[in-house]
Design goal:
This protein is mainly α and 152 residues long. It has one domain (6-151). It is 67% helix and 0% strand. It is built from eight helices and no strands. Helix 3 (53-72) packs antiparallel against helix 4. The radius of gyration is 19 Å and the shape is globular. This is DoxX protein.
Length: 152
């Protein structure tokens, strides 16, 4: 079983709690909020028009709850949590890039309306960092590594 590295705990707690809280909030969304979320998502991803707004909002909420819970669960390996975070934030970056008014014209810089979505870039970066996480090697494993021995 993979142990959770101490260096991974702070970002997993911070991002996991943030995403979990967002999902719990969206789960309580009223019809008007569901329409708004669905409408914005449909601009970026037109295939979502086939899904009813309330159903889309519930799926989004449960997705956020799952990703947030994955990051918070200490028994989930960091690389797996990173995969979930990277996929989730990639979808949100697509919103940021495709929805008009989120960015300044001809730039990646966010407008005031786009600032809440611009955070998805740092979530993507942390997710990619988690994907590249390796477990620490014991001294015995390092001494058996032929590459390591050749450098000494």
């Amino acid at each position: 079983m993979t142990t959770l590295e101490p260096r991974d705990v702070p970002p997993r707690l911070a991002i996991g709690a943030f995403i979990l809280n967002s999902g719990l909030g969206i789960l309580k969304a009223d019809a008007e909020t569901a329409e708004g979320l669905h409408g914005m998502a449909c601009v970026a991803y037109p295939f979502l028009k086939k899904i009813e707004p309330e159903r889309f909002t519930r799926l989004l909420a449960w997705s956020e709850i799952a990703v947030g819970g994955t990051l918070l669960a200490p028994f989930v390996p960091t690389r797996l949590a990173g995969l979930a975070l990277t996929g989730f934030s990639g979808g949100l970056i697509g919103l940021y890039l495709r929805v008009p008014g989120m960015r300044e014209p001809g730039s990646l810089r966010p407008t005031e309306a786009g600032t809440p979505l611009a955070k998805d870039f740092w979530m993507m970066g942390i997710g990619l960092g988690f994907l590249s996480a390796r477990t620490r090697w014991s001294r015995a494993e390092v001494s058996r590594c032929p590459w390591h021995r050749s450098r000494c």
